[in-house]
Amino acid sequence: MTADSSLRTVKAWPFEEAAKVADRIAAAGKATALFETGYGPSGLPHIGTFGEVARTTWVRQAFERMTGLKGRLLAFSDDMDGLRKVPDNVPNGDLLRQHLGKSLTAIPDPFGTHESFGHHNNARLRAFLDAFGFEYEFASATDYYRSGRFDAALLRMLECHEEVRQVILPTLGPDRRATYSPFLPVHPRTGVVMQVPVEEARPQDGTIVWRDPESGERFETPVTGGHVKAQWKADWAMRWYALGVDYEMSGKDLIDSVKLSSAICRVLGAEPPVSMTYELFLDAQGQKISKSKGNGLTIEEWLRYAPPESLAYFMYGQPGRAKRLHFDVIPRATDEYLQQRERLRASPDPANPDWHIHGGEVPNSPEPPLTFGMLLNLATVAAADTPERLWKFVRNYAPGATPETQPLLGQLVEYAVAYARDFVLPGLTPRAPTAEERPCFQALVDLLRAHQAEIEALPPGLPQAERIQVDVYDAGRREPFIQVMKDGSPGVARGWFNALYQVLVGADQGPRFGSLAAAYGVPETIRLVEEALARPSDAAGAAPEAEAASA
Predict the structure, then answer these.
(1) Angle at 23 between CA 22 and CA 24, to 5 degrees
(2) Name one GO biological process term (predicted).
(3) Which of 296, 332, 450, 520 could form a disulfide with 289 if both were Cys (CB 3.0 to 4.6 A apart)?
(4) Is residue 543 predicted with pLDDT exceeding 70?
(5) Domain extent at residue 396
(6) 490 has pLDDT over 50
């Protein structure tokens, strides 16, 4: 790949991160860069896993384009860690409970499909990453420890045992401070990863000495060959040192861990990797998302209602800012992704988020003629409970479109039906027009009926939408929505457009009404307004307060 140093000036965070990695690689004289993401396989992959791998992938891609050098992404599973508690979302909890404390790869698989619980979750992780097309290398902590890949680094940590302890001790309470060691021996009889004091560190022998707290028996255990597991922060540092990791990002909750692991990495004799801290996700109420609380949005739930690229787009924007992750963000993220996709096709700008989402390539499938928001509104007013019913109205706007000729549109139609059914329709209650509003709605019916033939003679899509919008404005240029503009001409207050959606849909706002009516069809739009006029008005009702708007 040819280097493009001009990409250093691109105002996009993946290039800013990539420039830091490029400087590190140049200083070290390396020909490749190692990017790492970590995974704790005591649970199943989740939306945060996707976010970390996706974001790291974008930095790796930016690095390769910028430097012309190869970047490797290592997805590292910490599967030698001991199981401390039984997860709530797995079967056969009693089976796992018998093996608490053992490495995840030394515990039977409660699902009955793999040789261990760790192997099962590793397979789930790989299938998860493969489903999104990520380019990565998988690494198992168990394999690396047992094969000797970490032996030299572990022996080095044994040489620096007291220095490593001094990095961690100030962060611990008095009791833990008295017993802390970076090494956790694996019990030679039970297989439990022991959290015990190390009585002696013997660098000359490559061993540690410890005592079984129950039997009092004393053991001398080599730190090599998978006989020990390093404590979390020491393990992270040892991994960076052993593998030469150049870049790893992590969440805000690990800021202190990054600092301590970086200090240990320097004690071992290496410079820690370039790091980036990303913010955590919040729920709809602004509370931190917790897997145990179940107050977040799962990746399966997102993908039930929108394409994976929309989730990637959500992950791309401002990773250093906390984001509310709930169902309401899905439509906006989807439409913003589609907007950037269209811009990318017009101009392949590396600052465009979709440039990164699509690996620097321009998508070659046709752009959908309707936004996701428009499809949602169309599914709502049409009460479309199946994709086939929604397609009937979509073809009013885009004649000849099919799921085969417009594959992305076909996916969006299915997503829109599902989202409208589950989240929009149950909460909508269209109101009756007030007595003051009725003349405007009646005028809209009269104008559409008078101009129906003229509108339908125009090409479908935007031409019809623009012509209908003229009638929408004309209908609103009367009390209570008429508004005098700065040039003295009669305009329309924003309250008219709010009223349209409140009365006809049950929502406070929506897309440009002319586009919605063009897709719904003039006869169906007339029928919709007439049904609203047939509802009795609340005598005490009043028109919504007019807001300033331009005609």
Answers:
(1) 90
(2) lysyl-tRNA aminoacylation
(3) 296
(4) no
(5) 365-428
(6) yes
